[in-house]
Amino acid sequence: MKSVIFAYTLLAAVTSFIFINSSVISNHIDNTSSRLNELPETVGDETLYEDVSEIYEEFKEKEKYISLTVSHEDLTNIETYFCQLVSAAQISEENDYKINLDLLKDALAHLERLCDMNLDSIL
CA angle at residue 96 from 61 to 54, to 5 degrees? Predict the structure, then answer.
């Protein structure tokens, strides 16, 4: 009987930790995505480089926690897109900026889908 109680307790604890982790990561990704959505679509703004760099630095701080449970490949793709976005904003390259902003938004959306508690994240 003790083993059954222990098994149910362990199952409840693991499920709780998965739910909490999923919620925290989704919150981090939502915050980053909303900050990216606030960026202008064009490169003309003088503070664009500072804004993008600030968002990237905030993501790097959160990445330490996210990397505990998320695929390294997904995080590497996001970091690559961030670096390319920062450099495009710095040199005011319009096409590269738009492309990398879209790629970064898509990569973050993919990561959020993987971290949500649904059938896709289990498979």
Answer: 25
